């Protein structure tokens, strides 16, 4: 069995994707959905082997929970048709309570598996350390577990499906195969996006016919993603790995440069993967939700997270933030605080419990480590401070006659937001929270340009030519981003050009990847970063 390490591997790009496209094209419509499902399970098997059983269990159990929820409601509806008026309220209350227990059980099963596999070792290790500090002679064995690929992504899709059925936003799917395809569609299996059942399930089941336009647009986007990954993310990998793994040997400038490079690498890797994922889906006529919207044009951290990993943020908003905000104890807070703090600050401070839970979950979602928890709390604090400071900032700008929509003010906000995000990425990438603080301290206490002056900076995995290629590529991506920010679709513009122009642009992009892509001796492709989450 050939292992599948990434969507950017030859196994996926040269065999799995083309093979699926060929089978999908030649077979009748009723078999296409089976082709997509078999390809999805093949991809999971090639990445995680026998751990496919976890995905199968999640799919079957979620299917059962959905039917259980719907059947419970249907049974109640039948009782209500013949029940006396005075008993109907009691029937509704008992039914709602029962359905609440069912969905809670379903969520507990899905997240119980995730917690055990992904966080079990972290919790047990910290328990053992706490026991040592308290002089308690208890030592629990720390399990060594291999995670199924994409477990965080498909678990969140499973949870959203059950909650949407519970809320009666969607009907329970009685077709196990359709639900299985929604849970496992192979382009999104490793790194998302996190789809809702209402967004993709019926699209996949309809299995639309292959169209030349979709094929061309899909391949176009795949190539754009390959450029981001191979030309930028992979090229910076050696420098980043060296600096973060051996930070004690480097000064603050080297660490700061590595942090900026890692932020660029993370964005190029993840957004490049999303381009490939959405392009793969588009080939089959499947529209997957966008996961990025040019986040580095953001003026605030809050806006940044509305543009970065959009589907994750939307999931936390709909299934964590709103339920907590609307819960009975929290629901009373706005009115109580508005009387003391005014309407604006009453609303801001009443949102703290829900906002805290969102960012704690966000940090833990990314990994089992104190540095990830700190990463979540860091962004929680930034967003809270931004919300608190916004009213006085508006007042001060008005008093000083500062145009907050002017280009200079906007640029200052964009740079500030990018710097704050980079600081967060330092702790995100650091091997531990302690290492993160040590690196952060070095930036301010040991910052020198000695390695630039003696040219040793360019001997740690990326030379001057590497940086020149990265800068040119980023300039191209920035130019496209600026055009898109103005509401112009570059892809539609290209589609309207004549065949000679379109072919020229295709060949230029392919040549650019072939010539400047980081592969071969001396380069180590970065593993899919978000696949590990």
Overview of the structural elements:
The mean pLDDT is 92. The longest helix is centred in the first third of the chain and has 49 residues, at 85-133. The protein starts with 9 loop residues before the first helix and ends in a 17-residue tail after the last helix. It is 73% helix and 0% strand. It has helices at 10-26, 29-48, 52-82, 85-133, 151-166, 176-184, 197-206, 212-233, 237-245, 252-283, 301-307, 310-325, 328-331, 333-341, 343-350, 352-366, 370-399, 407-429, 433-445, 450-453, 464-485, 490-495, 499-516. Helix 3 (52-82) runs parallel beside helix 5 and helix 9 (237-245) crosses helix 10. It is an all-alpha fold and 533 residues long.
Write the layout of secondary structure elements.
Elements: H1 10-26, H2 29-48, H3 52-82, H4 85-133, H5 151-166, H6 176-184, H7 197-206, H8 212-233, H9 237-245, H10 252-283, H11 301-307, H12 310-325, H13 328-331, H14 333-341, H15 343-350, H16 352-366, H17 370-399, H18 407-429, H19 433-445, H20 450-453, H21 464-485, H22 490-495, H23 499-516
Helix pairs in contact: 1-2, 2-6, 3-4, 3-5, 3-6, 4-5, 6-7, 8-10, 8-21, 8-23, 9-10, 10-18, 10-19, 12-16, 14-15, 16-17, 17-18, 18-19
**Integer-rounded radius of gyration:** 25 Å
Which residues sit in consecutive blocks of at least 5 with pLDDT less than 50? none
> What spatial form do the alpha-carbon principal axes imply?
globular
What's the helix count?
23
Helix/strand-derived category reads mainly alpha
Tell me the span between the first and last alpha carbons: 24 Å
């Amino acid at each position: 069995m050939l292992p599948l390490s990434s969507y950017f591997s030859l196994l996926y790009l040269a065999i799995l994707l083309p093979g699926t496209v060929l089978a999908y094209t030649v077979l009748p419509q009723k078999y296409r959905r089976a082709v997509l499902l078999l390809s999805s399970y093949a991809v999971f098997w090639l990445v995680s082997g026998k751990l496919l059983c976890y995905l199968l269990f999640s799919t079957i159990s979620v299917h059962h929970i959905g039917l259980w929820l719907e059947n419970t409601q249907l049974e109640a509806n039948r009782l209500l048709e013949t029940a006396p008026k005075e008993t109907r309220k009691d029937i509704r209350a008992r039914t709602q309570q029962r359905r609440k227990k069912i969905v809670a059980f379903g969520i507990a099963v899905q997240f119980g598996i995730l917690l055990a596999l992904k966080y079990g070792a972290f919790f047990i290790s910290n328990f053992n350390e706490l026991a040592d500090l308290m002089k308690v002679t208890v030592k629990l064995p720390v399990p060594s577990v291999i995670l199924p690929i994409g477990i965080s992504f498909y678990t969140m899709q499973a949870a959203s499906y059950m909650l949407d059925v519970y809320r009666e936003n969607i009907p329970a799917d009685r077709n196990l195969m359709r639900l299985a395809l929604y849970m496992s569609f192979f382009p999104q299996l490793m790194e998302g996006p996190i789809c809702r059942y209402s967004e993709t399930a019926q699209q996949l089941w309809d299995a639309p016919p292959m169209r030349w336009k979709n094929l061309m647009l899909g391949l176009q986007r795949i190539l754009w993603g390959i450029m981001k990954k191979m030309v930028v993310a992979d090229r910076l990998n050696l420098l980043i790995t060296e600096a973060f793994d051996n930070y004690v040997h480097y000064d603050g400038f080297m660490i700061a440069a590595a942090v900026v490079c890692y932020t660029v690498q993370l964005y190029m890797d993840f957004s490049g993967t999303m381009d490939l994922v959405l392009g793969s889906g588009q080939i089959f006529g499947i529209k997957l939700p966008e996961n990025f919207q040019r986040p580095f044009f953001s003026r605030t951290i809050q806006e940044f997270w509305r543009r970065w990993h959009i589907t994750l943020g939307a999931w936390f908003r709909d299934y964590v933030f709103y339920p907590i905000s609307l819960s009975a104890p929290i629901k009373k807070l706005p009115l109580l605080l508005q009387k003391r703090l005014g309407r604006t600050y009453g609303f801001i401070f009443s949102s703290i419990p829900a906002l805290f839970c969102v960012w704690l979950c966000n940090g833990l979602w990314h990994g089992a480590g104190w540095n990830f928890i700190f990463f979540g709390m860091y962004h929680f604090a930034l967003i809270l401070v931004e919300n608190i400071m916004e009213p006085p900032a508006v007042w001060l700008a008005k008093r000083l006659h500062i145009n907050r929509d002017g280009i200079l003010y906007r640029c200052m906000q964009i740079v500030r937001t990018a710097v704050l995000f980079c600081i967060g990425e330092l702790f995100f990438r650091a091997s531990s929270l302690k290492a993160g603080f040590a690196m952060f301290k070095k930036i301010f206490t040991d910052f020198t340009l000695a390695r630039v002056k003696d040219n040793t900076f360019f001997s740690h995995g990326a030379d001057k030519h590497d940086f020149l290629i990265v800068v040119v590529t980023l300039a191209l991506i920035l130019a496209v981003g600026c055009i898109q920010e103005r509401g112009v679709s570059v892809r539609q513009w290209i589609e309207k050009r004549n065949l000679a122009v379109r072919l020229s642009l295709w060949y230029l992009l392919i040549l650019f990847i072939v010539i400047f892509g980081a592969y071969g001796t001396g380069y180590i492709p970065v593993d899919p970063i978000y696949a590990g989450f």
